[in-house]
């Protein structure tokens, strides 16, 4: 039905479209580049007549393509004024140009470093421009530093500023109703996700990132291996001027639960020239020490702490004006203590988790003229993670709360070597203009694991032993996989007010010997002469990557479970759970998307957007117990079997997501702006009850709400000036439905429907006042704020075992706390 509706809409567009314009006398071609001569895409180029009499050359505009190129047509030679705007750059205003031939002009715009001026640096890419046909959400570097979100030192935390992104109680990201490993995470075009789990576990400081772009539903075939979309991070660049600064370089104090050293997130950034006019660098370092207080636990055993450090170095060398070399190096170290501490999980059940990540990449970009550009790049990722419990005792799962030592004890390491090729071919004319893109990539993956899991016991309401699961002898293994892809995209500008996108992608995974094809079809149409309204939409197919942790499951330790009778004696011999992956017949998980969006400019710098998104996931991976496929769903780490279990990897997972989103945004001079959005969504799946497993071990007969399903969400933020000079106030309001959860009996079996109950309404209101000042020739920004101003409890845990005295009691109080931030920008005037 959805495909039929989209097809009908496209047919209606073709019938009702205006007749094409007559051939232009003069073609005005140009490129937009930054101060380092790198191309700037999605910039808006405006031209207006320099003389009032030349009305024919007035009010024309175009958007640059990924090569920075644009084309405009004027009916006659004329003197014009050119303006260029792009989010994250200072606007170029009224540059005089004489157009009389087909010469290519180059316009330079400067990137924003920090803002003390009143210039408009939030001149966003117009959402009503026909050239922007993808379904995207954008987050700029200034928004990430201006809006007071929780844990504002970490880029990962800033992603909640995107209406389609939420985090659950464990901090896991969910993009448009997806699991975290169903999204492709890119840093300057290279895959940054953890190949072991597929998750985004990189620590990045917000000061080192220029922009975040989220593509979902309708996206370019360049982006694959993420059925829910692609999250693209772009780093800051250096310039010919040195810039340096620091943030949060003074530790804070925490008075919650007694006076103690609070969270400390010092960040330092420096950028500048290596060889003026030829080579530049940008380096950002973040170190973080954090503590969290868990209410309801004894003093001294109610805090968890972690320390981490991350350094991101980005470089650019202009070998020639048309040949640019980019390089990145990222190192991350994270040591987290008492991971898993919670109101129902005391100190003994926690683990120490050590994570290391190293990433290096180099990319060569060659501009060939006439809209042609070729990129060739290589990237290397190195991940390692070790999890160590507090002791070697068995883990105890009881209705009153957990005890003992957590059972997972492992060391895992993986590498990814990635080659990519991306080419923009010269534009050509045939029934309109065509811009072809083609490319592909190859990834080599290697995985090593050493598993020393112990086991766990399940206790009943009266404390009796119900079952005991022990893991076999430690396991150590290695495996490898190869992924390859290729894609082709035609961006077809049929008429001035109609653009079509026709793409195709192919992905192949060597380990499961599967190839998947992904067609991408999209349209963008401006139906009115004012060009202030845009309709867009399309259909696309996407696929998920294969995670190494899933491939390694059959090589891990087997689980042996013993069931005990009411007298406390074994009811029989231990039963064994084993895992297997079939040699043939598996497919890559698939998702079909339908999107429709309407964008309207309702006033100067005020934009209204409405989006409708449908995603249908099929062929998702799950391990199914072939000996007991109809066993009742369980909330235990491994479903307790009454007989031997053989889990086989199958394509039986199904996902469903629907959303309607409305948003309005206004930008002012300087970096000031406000945004408000409302999203109604529904996220369902048949494999949602295995939170501790890398791949689902159970499916249910029907689709049920996912544990992160939040049907209603209101998100609003603002950064606006106060009446006093250099004073500003910022705020963030985030209100959503409480997450669903299931209740279980003493045996771990789900009682009633899966995810039939919900946590209370979640509401966060953060406010902050900021003062920008110059002291002894140096620039500072001082901020004082309060998080969770209303003191909403926002619980993180619930007693969900039927029959316990505290059944359905919610635990974990977020609390209200103050936030102080000091930013240092170096010498004034630099």
Overview of the molecule:
By secondary structure, the chain is mostly beta strands. The chain has two domains: 2-108, Sandwich (Immunoglobulin-like); 136-541 and 561-827, Beta Barrel (Maltoporin, Chain A). 3% of the residues lie in helices and 53% in strands. It has four helices and 52 strands. The protein has a 22-stranded antiparallel barrel. A hairpin with a 5-residue loop joins strand 29 (455-459) and strand 30 (465-471). It is globular and about 95 Å long. It starts with a helix and ends with a strand. 43% of the residues are buried. The model is unreliable at 1-24, 52-58 and 115-125 (pLDDT under 50).
- Alpha carbon gyration radius: 28 Å
Unreliably modeled segments: 1-24, 52-58, 115-125
The CATH class designation of the largest domain is Mainly Beta
CATH architecture designation of the largest domain: Beta Barrel
Q: Helical residue percent?
A: under 10%
Chart the SSEs and their pairings.
Layout: H1 2-16, E1 26-33, E2 44-49, E3 60-63, E4 69-74, E5 78-85, E6 92-99, E7 104-108, E8 136-140, H2 141-146, H3 155-158, E9 165-167, E10 173-175, E11 184-187, E12 190-191, E13 209-215, E14 230-235, E15 243-247, E16 253-254, E17 260-261, E18 267-275, E19 279-293, E20 303-320, E21 323-339, E22 351-369, E23 372-389, E24 395-397, E25 403-404, E26 410-424, E27 428-429, E28 433-451, E29 455-459, E30 465-471, E31 475-495, E32 498-509, E33 514-525, E34 533-543, H4 548-551, E35 559-563, E36 575-580, E37 590-603, E38 606-625, E39 645-667, E40 673-685, E41 704-705, E42 712-721, E43 727-736, E44 740-741, E45 743-744, E46 750-751, E47 757-758, E48 762-775, E49 778-787, E50 797-798, E51 810-811, E52 817-827
Parallel strand pairs: 1-7, 11-14, 24-29, 36-39
Antiparallel strand pairs: 1-4, 2-3, 2-5, 5-6, 8-13, 9-10, 11-12, 13-14, 15-18, 15-52, 16-17, 18-19, 19-20, 20-21, 21-22, 22-23, 23-26, 24-25, 26-28, 27-28, 28-31, 29-30, 30-35, 31-32, 32-33, 33-34, 34-37, 35-36, 37-38, 38-39, 39-40, 40-41, 40-42, 42-43, 43-48, 44-47, 45-46, 48-49, 49-52, 50-51
């Amino acid at each position: 039905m959805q495909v039929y509706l989209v097809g009908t809409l496209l047919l209606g567009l073709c019938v009702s479209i205006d007749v094409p314009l007559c051939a232009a006398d003069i073609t005005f071609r140009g490129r937009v580049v930054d101060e380092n001569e790198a191309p700037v895409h999605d910039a808006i180029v405006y031209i207006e007549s320099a003389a009032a009499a030349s009305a024919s050359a007035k009010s024309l505009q175009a958007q640059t393509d990924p090569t920075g190129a644009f084309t405009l047509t004027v009916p006659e030679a004329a003197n014009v004024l050119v303006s260029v705007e792009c989010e994250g750059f200072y606007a170029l205003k009224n540059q005089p140009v004489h157009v009389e031939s087909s010469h290519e002009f180059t316009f330079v715009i400067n990137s924003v470093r920090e803002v003390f001026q009143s210039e408009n640096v939030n001149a966003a890419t117009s959402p009503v421009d026909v050239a922007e046909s993808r379904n995207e959400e954008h987050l700029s570097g200034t928004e990430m530093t201006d809006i007071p979100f929780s844990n504002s030192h970490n880029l990962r935390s800033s992603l909640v500023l995107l209406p389609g992104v939420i985090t659950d109680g464990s901090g896991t990201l969910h993009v448009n109703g997806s699991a975290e490993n169903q999204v492709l995470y890119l840093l300057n075009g290279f895959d940054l996700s953890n190949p072991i789990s597929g998750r985004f576990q990189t620590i990045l400081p917000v000061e080192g990132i220029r922009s975040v772009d989220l593509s979902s539903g309708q996206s370019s075939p360049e982006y694959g291996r993420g059925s829910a979309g692609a999250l693209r991070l772009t780093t800051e660049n250096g310039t010919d001027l040195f810039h340096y600064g620091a943030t949060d370089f003074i530790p804070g104090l925490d008075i919650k639960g007694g006076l103690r050293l609070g969270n400390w997130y010092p960040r330092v950034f420096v950028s500048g020239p290596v060889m003026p006019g030829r080579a530049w660098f940008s380096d950002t370092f973040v170190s973080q020490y954090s503590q969290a207080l868990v209410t309801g636990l004894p003093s001294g055993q109610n805090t968890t702490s972690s320390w981490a450090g991350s350094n991101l170095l980005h470089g650019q060398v202009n070998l020639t004006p048309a040949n640019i070399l980019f390089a990145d190096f990222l190192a991350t170290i994270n040591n987290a203590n008492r991971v898993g501490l919670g109101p129902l999980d005391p100190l003994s059940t926690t683990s120490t988790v050590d994570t290391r990540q190293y990433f290096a990449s180099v990319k060569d970009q060659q501009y060939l003229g006439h809209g042609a550009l070729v990129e060739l790049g290589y990237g290397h990722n190195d991940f390692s993670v070790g999890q160590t419990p507090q002791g070697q005792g068995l883990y105890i799962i009881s209705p009153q709360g957990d005890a003992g030592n957590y059972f997972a004890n492992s060391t895992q390491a993986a590498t990814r070597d990635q080659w990519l090729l991306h080419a923009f071919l010269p534009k050509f004319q045939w029934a309109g203009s065509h811009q072809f893109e083609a490319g592909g990539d190859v990834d080599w993956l290697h995985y090593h694991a050493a598993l020393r899991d112990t086991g766990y016991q399940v206790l009943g309401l009266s404390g009796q032993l119900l079952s005991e699961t022990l893991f076999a002898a430690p396991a150590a293994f290695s495996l490898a996989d190869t992924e390859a892809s290729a894609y082709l995209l035609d961006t077809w500008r049929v008429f001035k007010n109609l653009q079509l996108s026709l793409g195709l992608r192919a992905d192949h995974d060597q380990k499961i010997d599967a190839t998947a094809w992904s067609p991408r079809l999209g349209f963008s149409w401006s139906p009115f002469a004012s060009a202030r309204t845009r309709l867009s939409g399309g259909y696309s197919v996407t696929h998920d990557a294969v995670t190494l942790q899933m491939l390694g499951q059959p090589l891990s330790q087997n689980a042996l479970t013993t069931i005990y009778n009411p007298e406390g004696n074994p009811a029989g011999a231990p039963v064994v759970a084993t895992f297997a992956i079939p040699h043939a017949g598996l497919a890559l998980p698939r998702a079909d998307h339908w999107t429709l969006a309407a964008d309207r400019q309702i006033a100067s710098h005020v934009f209204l957007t409405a989006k409708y998104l449908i995603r249908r996931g099929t062929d998702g991976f799950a391990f199914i117990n072939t000996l007991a496929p109809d066993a009742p769903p369980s909330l235990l780490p491994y479903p307790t079997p009454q007989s031997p279990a053989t889990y086989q990897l199958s394509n039986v997972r199904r996902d469903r997501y629907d959303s309607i989103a409305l948003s309005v945004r206004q930008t002012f001079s300087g970096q000031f702006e406000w945004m408000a959005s409302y999203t109604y969504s529904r996220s369902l799946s048949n494999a949602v009850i295995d939170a501790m497993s890398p791949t689902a071990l159970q499916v249910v007969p029907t689709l049920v709400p996912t544990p992160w399903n939040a049907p209603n969400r209101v998100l609003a933020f603002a950064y606006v000036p106060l009446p006093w000079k250099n004073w500003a106030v910022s705020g963030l309001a985030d209100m959503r439905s409480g997450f669903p959860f299931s209740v279980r009996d003493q045996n771990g079996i789900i009682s009633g429907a899966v995810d039939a109950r919900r946590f209370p309404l979640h509401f966060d209101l953060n406010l902050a006042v900021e003062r920008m000042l110059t002291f002894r020739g140096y620039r500072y920004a001082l901020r004082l704020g309060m998080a969770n101003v209303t003191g909403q409890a926002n619980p993180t845990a619930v007693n969900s075992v039927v029959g316990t005295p505290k059944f359905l009691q919610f635990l974990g109080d977020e609390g209200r706390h103050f936030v102080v931030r000091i930013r240092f920008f170096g010498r004034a005037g630099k």
